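thread: overnight batch results

M.L. [08:02]
morning all. the overnight job finished for the chain we discussed friday. pasting input first so we're all looking at the same thing
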Amino acid sequence: MLTVRSISNSGQELCGLVLAGGRSSRMGSDKASLVHGDGRTLALRTYELLGEAGCRWVALSLRADQDLPAGFAGGTVPALIRDPAGASAGPLTGMLAAMRSRPEANWLVVACDLPRLDLATLRALIGSQLPGDVLLAYRSEHDGLPEPLCALYAPAAAELLEEAMAAALRCPRKILIKHQCRLLEPVSPGALDNANTPDEWEASRNP
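M.L. [08:03]
and the structure it wrote out:
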């Protein structure tokens, strides 16, 4: 499953990171363990989509004290990248932990709470990366700004994220805006709509 395409257009190894370490306070239950219409939990579905899209190695990003999300019992045993104990900088913490673990890789970073995410969206993103792209993301259908949690981060992006963390700039979207991330137009309508609340989750389950 993880051998469709292991090298991005920039020539580096392509790794995938599923961000599943959020506390899901607005949802009221762990978003990563919600069951998609196809029978998989959101975390497992996203993990497998990244592999099918061509990531050579895929990992789950979790908090230091977090249990493995539901759905991985049986045959799928994911690699885990945990936040340092006491870290509380949101997704940036997990992203930097991943980049530090494999600094020469391109990272396809995706949030687990995108119930309409599809392979076409991921493959178009991977296939659009140019050798000079440090940051590559889709343009939001809602406000035209970068979608940082379904985006490609080249090895050089690690330094930008480290600088942002040191400056207490912890919003991935603001980091992408600051560094003039190249933006692509969405491929599949609604594919990057996330589900943060019960109402959004129910809406995502309807055509």
